[in-house]
Amino acid sequence: MSGNLRKAVLLVIDVQNDFCPGGKLEVKEGDKIIPVINQIMGKFPRIVATQDWHPQNHISFASNHKDKNVFDSVTVNGIEQTLWPDHCVKGSDGADFYYLLDKRFFDLILRKGTQPELDSYSAFFENDKTTSTGLAYFLKGLGIEDVYVGGLATDFCVFYTAMDSVKLGFNTFFVVDASRGVNVPEGRVEKAVRDMKNAGISVVNSKELIFM
């Protein structure tokens, strides 16, 4: 790992009310990562935060599929889609960043999952794997070489963001204690971390960054 973070960005993925305790799609201990993220944000010259920002008729909501339940899978336009409770509806309280997250550090807020018929886990691409969010161009234009990823959830949006990051040529780091996972089915988080390591993504702890 580089000794400085001057050419690095921290991606803070979906730390929103609906993914934290009491939210529509609560990630267990999702709020526990917030002190960690707040502590390390000051070490980075650039911070990008993402928000799920779904329309009410979004394809990922189980309520929009007859006779389907939360965590069922469907195939839409050739893309496998996990079905979720209605969450992070644009403009709703659930879509807001969690109140303890220090938003003063954010250089860019990227909203994703805005199209009714297409979900977006990754901060870089929609789930069709071809529609770009523009984030890669933004980072490369700033001379960013190292991408650090944390947030919610490890086995979904954090995972797909990190995997796309390394495929795009960035040195990519997963900040393990700045993330929590859904872990449905059981073992999904463990597999996600293993797959990230196998793809060349470095798994780091926030303590490694605090003193850099």
Quickly list its features.
alpha/beta, Rossmann fold, 5 helices
In words, what does this structure look like?
By secondary structure, this protein is an alpha/beta fold. The protein has one domain (8-58, 86-210): Rossmann fold, CATH 3.40.50. The protein has helices at 34-41, 135-141, 154-167, 188-198, 207-210; strands at residues 8-13, 46-52, 73-76, 79-82, 108-112, 146-152, 171-180, 202-204. A six-stranded parallel beta sheet has the order 5-2-1-6-7-8, with helices on both faces. Helix 3 runs parallel beside helix 4. It is globular, with a radius of gyration of 16 Å. 44% of the residues are buried. The model has no long low-confidence stretch (mean pLDDT 95).
Quote the distance from N terminus to C terminus. Answer: 10 Å
Q: Report the oligomer.
A: single chain
CATH first level: Alpha Beta
Number of domains: 1
From the alpha carbons, calculate the radius of gyration and give it in angstroms.
16 Å
Strands of the widest sheet, in order across it, are 5-2-1-6-7-8
Q: Which fold name is given in CATH as the topology? A: Rossmann fold
- What's the total number of strands? 8
**What is the chain-wise order of helices and strands?**
EHEEEEHEHEHEH
Which structural class best describes the helix and strand composition?
alpha/beta
**Uncertain regions: pLDDT < 50 for 5+ in a row?**
none
Number of helical elements? 5
Residues in helices, as a percent range = 10-25%
Q: Could you state the CATH homologous superfamily?
A: Isochorismatase-like
Which shape, going by the Cα principal axes? Answer: globular
- In CATH, the architecture is 3-Layer(aba) Sandwich
Strand content: 15-25%
Largest β-sheet summary? 6 strands, parallel
Mean pLDDT: 95
